[in-house]
Design a protein that fits this description.
Elements: H1 6-21, H2 30-33, H3 37-55, H4 59-72, H5 77-90, H6 93-105, H7 110-123, H8 127-133, H9 141-157, H10 161-174, H11 179-191, H12 195-206, H13 213-225, H14 229-242, H15 247-259, H16 263-276, H17 281-293, H18 297-313, H19 316-321, H20 323-335, H21 339-352, H22 357-369, H23 373-386, H24 391-403, H25 407-420, H26 425-437, H27 441-454, H28 459-471, H29 475-488, H30 493-505, H31 509-522, H32 527-539, H33 543-556, H34 561-573, H35 577-590, H36 595-607, H37 611-624, H38 629-641, H39 645-658, H40 662-675, H41 679-692, H42 697-710, H43 713-726, H44 733-744, H45 748-759, H46 765-777, H47 781-794, H48 799-811, H49 815-828, H50 833-845, H51 849-862, H52 867-879, H53 883-896, H54 901-913, H55 917-929, H56 937-949
Length: 950
């Protein structure tokens, strides 16, 4: 930093020099006695020449004379003071402080040096120290005004703006002509974005015969902030007309010229600076940019390397005294790929210049590139607050939000960019990315077609358009785009892989394989092609071939954890849990920092029924990444599997604490609370979720389901209205929930209307099943059967429709038809447990008890831990006269689903058959008290009444 307040220093310097002339003789060092008269005279003469050069602005010459003077007489105090002034002017606060301490230790009056000390502290950012040691007093009013001004600068640097404003105003009260204080007030106003007030202070400071160049410099900065670049250049020209040697003014003007691509004009200012200060890093950086624009990249890079080395060699005090050095170090290191060093310097710079938008943008990009989107989001959000409606910042925030998985927020930012720049192909393309992430493929395609009109040859747009067509199932259009690109670059491995995927999704597996194989031939180590071909082998029933190929590639690339994960996935498909776990472990041993790999490893442990190890490895990950919200959610899921609901909820709470998308995290916590039957806490959490994210449909749906369970008409319909307001017009879910709530209220007519309205938006299985329930509950079973027959005919592979139809036949007394229907289903799906279970039940009702037992046993073998299947098998055994065999099955079923009243009824009847009526009566009472219904509930109540009478 270079000090531009020469006139003030001149007057202060005269006071100090006079004081020096009347010093009482200081304690002299032995060296001082050795000075001869000739040397003393040489020192005085050299000092006078230095003083003249200094006042003429010839700083280099002044320093040469001072060097000669101090060589002749090292203890010459006026030389030391003048040297301190020069060092302050050059921005070397630490060097100035050394000289001033030297003078003070040798008897100089501290009050005569206090202002220079103040400037040396400011340059070193010793703001807190300055405020402690330099205080107001009863000195000369000009010195007191300077002290108030210095305290204002210290407060300003310390970010205490109200105190800074008071100190600047106090300086003006002491000296109404002290324009530097007025410029300080302008700086405070500018930080508060009161640019009108700042300009008022500046114009007042300039309305004098001999204005401060710093006023014009600040005016230029404000104009630049407001993007009035020509006005900024005009202001800097005024500053340079006053002081043509001012380095900061020259740097500012060179930067403005570069922004306007006036490189020759910029180079004149840069060369002027480098003639005076050959190692000035900011000027060297601008020179490197100018050189690069002329095509000499090698020389530009060489200059950049030199800049980095210069900045690394500067002492920390000088770097801190010149915060722009930190910015420059960040910028140059970023360009050379030294990301950690770049981040460190930019973070330091923003401690001093907290509102620098360009630095925030650069640091945001760096944090994102370094894999820390959370940090990027924090810094870019601040930049957005300081400069709203900046398309670059909004774009970066959109991309960061996509990285964080906050798709809705990302699209809000990206849509704002397209409103500001409606014809920007880049803005439209980024918005398309957001729409694809949100699953809005039609909107994405529309944006990309518009972007393509503005930039016909942009390959990125075409690739993204192909992706959008592919995602929306329009494979022919995706293939057409990729085919044209492939024709232009027939040996582009990336395009061959994309084309292979596109034709494969369209059903042309031979074409897909051909393109993958061509890509692999061009690049024998291309992992993408290799993995695609391996997956095709698995699909075609040749998993061992896939394993062989992947293992052979691993011999060449032994640390490729992607190949290991792929091997684990193949073994998982083969139900070889031991080998799947082996490869997941191996991948994790190479890269334990990747959360996706951790998820695979946890899956591997679960396949091997080893929850303890899954918890252990997840906890180790959390120890390394204690703020990883998804890791806490994963551990919460594992604790749920381990039947530790308290621990699960605690982890979901920690996930909320560290989550960016806090609404989603709160919804996950509420689901865990509901599973733990803490509905009161879940309801409270869900309301928090919608407070965080008023558009979080999942939270509203959960709250609506609670009102359905409670048959809460008023709150239920209010919530459904809100859900409807945040849903797409063709979303059927609000109508389905309306139907469900009316079902709970037993208003079957309104329920039917709601489900039919849902079907008006398109075929919907939930609406069909809702209507089935309406017709069944309202006694219109024939109508239910007719409707289900129609839907089963339309969707013969929909098991839910088929099973409902089979049960409807049974409830209508068409037992033989139900049996025949289930037999037909079993012919197509001989080992599907749900069909076997229902077939067992209907066959028992039809009197086919052996067949019923056979089907129930097979269902239980295939799915041994399903409560429904256990209950069916046990109830068949119990009614066949084997209550001893039925009892343990019913106990197990009840453990799996304790709240099921039908299982309790069956258990009560089985206990009674075993002569344990007392226990049976208690179980039967629990069953009948349940609010849930089941087919035998009336029979259960009658049995309980009879037992109570007896």
């Amino acid at each position: 930093m270079h000090w531009n307040e020469e006139k003030s220093l001149r007057s202060i310097g005269l006071i100090i020099l006079c004081a020096c002339l009347i010093f009482t003789a200081p304690l002299s060092s032995p060296q001082a006695h050795a000075i001869t008269n000739v040397q003393s005279r040489q020192a005085e003469e050299a000092y006078e020449k230095a003083l003249i050069s200094f006042h003429d602005g010839k700083i280099k010459t002044a320093k040469i004379h001072l060097k000669n003077a101090l060589k002749a007489n090292p203890g010459h105090l006026p030389c030391r003071i003048l040297l301190a002034e020069i060092l302050i002017r050059e921005g070397d606060g630490a060097g100035a402080e050394i000289e001033l301490n030297y003078v003070r230790e040798r008897g100089a009056d501290y009050n005569s040096l206090i202002v220079l000390f103040g400037y040396s502290y400011i340059l070193q950012n010793k703001n807190k120290y300055l405020l402690e040691v330099i205080r107001d007093g009863n000195r000369d009013s000009n010195i007191e005004a300077e002290i108030s001004y210095l305290r204002g600068r210290a407060y300003f640097g310390y970010k205490k703006l109200a105190n800074a404003r008071r100190s600047y105003q106090q300086a003006l009260d002491l000296n109404p002509f002290f324009q530097k204080a007025r410029i300080g007030l302008a700086q405070v106003a500018a930080v508060h974005k009161r640019y009108d007030l700042a300009m008022e202070y500046i114009d007042h400071a300039l309305d004098v015969a001999d204005p401060e160049p710093a006023a014009w410099v600040l005016k230029a900065k404000i104009y630049k902030q407001l993007e009035f670049n020509q006005k900024a250049i005009d202001a800097i020209n005024e500053a340079l007309a006053i002081d043509g040697d001012n380095i900061l003014s020259r740097l500012t003007r060179a930067t403005l010229y570069i922004d306007r691509r006036k490189f020759d004009d910029a180079e004149k200012d840069v060369d002027f600076i480098l003639d005076k200060y050959p190692r000035e890093p900011r000027a060297k950086y601008l020179k490197a940019i100018i050189i690069a624009t002329r095509g000499d990249i090698a020389l530009s890079k060489s200059s950049m390397t030199e800049i980095i080395n210069i900045l690394r060699s500067l002492p920390p005090a000088m770097m801190n005294a010149n915060p722009t050095y930190h910015y420059l170090a960040g910028l140059t290191n970023f360009q050379f790929g030294n990301l950690d060093e770049a981040r460190e310097n930019l973070q330091k710079y923003l401690k001093y210049e907290k509102n620098d938008i360009s630095a925030m943008r650069l640091l945001g990009a760096l944090e994102l590139q370094a894999g820390d989107p959370l940090a990027a989001n924090v810094i870019l959000s601040k930049a957005d607050r300081n400069q709203p409606d900046n398309p670059t910042i909004l774009t970066m925030l959109g991309l960061v939000s996509l990285e964080l998985g906050n798709v809705d927020k990302a699209n809000r930012y990206l849509e704002a960019v397209t409103r500001l720049l409606p014809e920007s192909s880049r803005g439209l393309t980024n918005l398309a990315r957001g729409k694809i992430a949100a699953g809005s493929f039609g909107a994405a395609i529309g944006n990309l077609l518009k972007a393509e009109q503005h930039n016909l040859d942009d390959v990125d747009i075409k690739l993204l358009l192909a992706k959008a067509y592919q995602k929306s199932g329009q494979y022919d259009k995706a293939i057409a785009i990729l085919h044209k690109l492939k024709e232009k670059q027939p040996e582009n491995v990336y395009l061959l892989n994309l084309y292979g995927t596109a034709v494969g999704l369209a059903g042309d597996l031979a074409g897909a394989r051909k393109n993958y194989e061509k890509a692999l031939k061009l690049d024998k180590d291309n992992i993408t092609s290799l993995i695609h071909l391996s997956r095709m082998d698995v699909i075609e029933g040749k998993p061992q071939n896939a394993i062989k190929v992947l293992r052979r590639q691993l011999e060449k690339m032994p640390d490729d954890y992607g190949l290991m994960i792929e091997l684990g996935n193949i073994y998982k498909l083969l139900k070889d849990s031991r080998n799947a776990l082996f490869w997941y472990k191996k991948a994790h041993s190479i890269n334990s920092k990747d959360f996706a790999i951790l998820q695979h490893l946890v899956d591997g442990y679960l396949l091997n029924a080893d929850i303890a190890s899954a918890l252990k490895i997840t906890t180790e990950f959390i120890d390394h990444f204690p703020k990883h919200t998804r890791a806490y959610s994963l551990r919460g899921q594992l604790f749920q599997k381990a039947a530790k609901p308290g621990e699960a909820i605690r982890n979901y709470e920690l996930a909320v604490e560290y989550a960016i998308k806090r609404g989603d995290a709160l919804l996950a916590l509420a689901n865990a609370q509901m599973k733990a039957n803490d509905h009161k806490a879940a309801r409270k959490t869900l309301w928090k979720a919608v407070a965080w994210d008023p558009n979080l449909a999942g939270a509203y749906i959960a709250l609506i389901r609670m009102t359905i369970k409670d048959a809460d008409r008023r709150n239920g319909f209010d919530l459904i209205r809100h859900l409807r307001s945040i849903s797409e017009q063709d979303n059927s879910f609000p109508d389905i929930l309306t139907g469900d709530l009316n079902m709970a209220l037993k208003d079957y007519g309104q329920a039917e209307k709601a489900y039919l309205a849902a079907l008006g938006n398109g075929d919907n299985p939930l609406a069909v099943m809702g209507l089935h329930q309406v017709y069944q509950k309202s006694g219109h079973i024939k109508k239910a059967i007719a409707m289900l027959e129609n839907w089963h005919g339309k969707y013969p592979n929909n098991i839910m429709f088929a099973m409902s139809l089979g049960n409807a036949y049974k409830k209508d007394g068409q037992i033989e038809r139900s049996v025949a229907f289930h037999e037909k289903l079993l012919a197509d799906n001989p080992r599907m447990p749900i069909i076997l279970n229902n077939a067992a039940s209907v066959n028992f009702t039809a009197g086919n008890k052996d067949k019923a037992l056979k089907y129930a046993r097979l269902a239980n073998e295939i799915m041994p831990d399903n409560a429904n299947i256990l209950d069916t098998l046990a109830w068949i055994k119990s009614r066949r006269g084997n209550p001893e065999d039925a009892l343990p099955l019913l106990r197990k079923a009840l453990i799996l689903r304790y709240s099921d009243p039908e299982i309790k009824y069956h258990l009560a009847m089985t206990l009674d058959k075993l002569g344990r009526r007392g226990e049976a009566r208690r179980m039967l009472a629990e069953s009948t008290r349940s609010k849930a219904t089941f087919p035998e509930k009336d029979a259960a109540r009658e049995t309980l009444r009879q037992w109570q009478e007896n």
